[in-house]
Design a protein that fits this description.
CATH topology of the largest domain: Nucleotidyltransferase, domain 5
Strand content: 25-35%
Protein name: ROK family protein
Pfam families: ROK
Oligomer: single chain
InterPro entries: ATPase_NBD, ROK
Number of strands: 15
Bound molecules: beta-D-glucopyranose
CATH class of the largest domain: Alpha Beta
Strand order of the largest sheet: 3-2-1-4-8
Family: Belongs to the ROK (NagC/XylR) family.
Number of domains: 2
Length: 233
């Protein structure tokens, strides 16, 4: 009888500023360091696929999970406001499968971050603070995919992403950005009445106010670790 070999998953996180990868064991534990390259200056599908290819060098894996910064349905990327218009309607799942010769599953980046962060109990909301603003929502561990809060109006005729995204943080400074984030959390709590809110993404390190007890910061690596969940059913 042949032994059943545990499957290794290459987790990929495509972000507006960096592309990250890590190999996970069948339980979702890291088998490698997190590798990162800058997102190409003109992040077309070709350029990003090329960058991913480079990051796979020297790594062995059986399947691939990809977090993508836009709406994803059945492996097809439908929006990509912080990448490039060529992603609209792009069959990332199928094309990456051809390129890497392994099965690929793709989901929204905040959805994956959430899958790695949540407890599975009650209403859980995730907000990611990076180049863009990502969001994800769960009921008892079940994902409601592609929640796009980031592009919803927040205040002063601007969306959450316009008020809290990376470019705005740089433009308005940490103090105003923190004040806005505090307001956003207050508003989201009143809309969703969540049991837990998880804040992820690189800009969580800029938070300088005391968070309410039901709000937690989730580490950056969660965006990769959550990738294992795409293979759990
Ligand atoms: C996109 C979301 C994404 C978020 C974070 C937003 O601009 O619309 O789908 O999750 O950025 O990358």
């Amino acid at each position: 009888m042949g032994e059943i070999k545990p499957l290794h998953t290459l987790a990929v996180d495509i972000g507006g500023s960096g592309i990250k990868v890590m190999v996970l064991d069948d339980q979702g534990n890291p088998l490698t360091e997190r590798d990162r390259v800058e997102t190409p200056a003109i992040p077309t599908p070709d350029a990003v696929l090329h960058a991913i290819q480079g990051l796979t060098a020297g790594k062995t894996f059986d399947r691939v999970s990809v977090g993508f910064p836009g709406v994803v349905r059945k492996g097809i990327t439908e929006t990509a406001v912080n990448l490039h218009p060529d992603w609209v309607g792009f069959d990332l799942g199928a094309i990456l499968e051809q390129q890497l010769g392994k099965p690929v599953r793709v989901a929204n980046d905040a959805d994956i971050q959430g899958l790695g962060a949540i407890s599975g109990d009650g209403v859980e909301l995730v907000l990611t603070l990076g180049t863009g603003i990502g969001s994800a929502m769960f009921l008892n561990g079940k994902l409601i995919p592609n929640l796009e809060l980031g592009h919803h109006p927040f205040r002063k005729g601007e969306t959450y992403e316009q008020q809290l995204g990376r470019a705005t943080l740089d433009a308005v400074g940490k103090k105003r950005w923190n004040r806005r984030l505090e307001r956003a959390i207050d508003l989201l709590e009143r809309i969703f009445n969540y049991d837990h809110l998880y804040l992820g993404g690189g800009n969580t390190k800029r938070i300088d106010f005391v968070l309410p007890p039901n709000v937690k910061i989730t580490p950056n690596v969660t965006g990769l670790l959550g990738g294992i969940a795409l293979w759990q059913d």
